[in-house]
Every structure is written in C-alpha cells, then in structure tokens.
Design goal:
mainly alpha, about 0% strand, elongated, PLDc N-terminal domain-containing protein, membrane, transmembrane
C-alpha cells in the first residue's frame, strides 16, 4: 500500500504538520487579536496549507525583529 513512500515524504509531511500546528497555536494564543482575526488567520493557514504556514513564519520573524529593535 505504501510502496512508493520514502523517508523524504515522511519528513515533508511531519514538517508540514509541525508548521501548521505551531501556526495555529500561535494564532489562538495571541492576546491582541479578536476572534474574527483569529478565525480568518486559521482559515488562511488551513486553506493555503504550506504557503500559509510559511507566511506565518515570515510574519512572526518580522514581528519579533520589530519588537527587539523598538526597545533599543
């Protein structure tokens, strides 16, 4: 049944799941957003699977960079 599945496929799927779960946890733990923003972000991450998770990582990196330089 899984004859053509290699370790590369497994690594990609696990990486995708880890990114998606991390994105969803981060979205719902965010304090400054209202429920509508959280729902929209959740739908975006789920609807655009891999790109949504990568975009979330990019926004987190930008937001953390802004936060670290604003205190200087």
């Amino acid at each position: 049944m899984f004859v053509n599945v290699s370790y590369t496929h497994v690594v990609i799927v696990v990486a995708y799941l880890a990114l998606t779960i991390a994105a969803l946890v981060s979205i719902w733990r965010r304090d400054g957003a209202d429920v509508a923003q959280k729902v929209f972000s959740t739908v975006a991450v789920i609807a655009v699977p891999f790109i949504g998770a990568l975009l979330w990582l990019a926004f987190v990196a930008v937001r953390s960079r802004r936060g670290s330089t604003s205190g200087a």
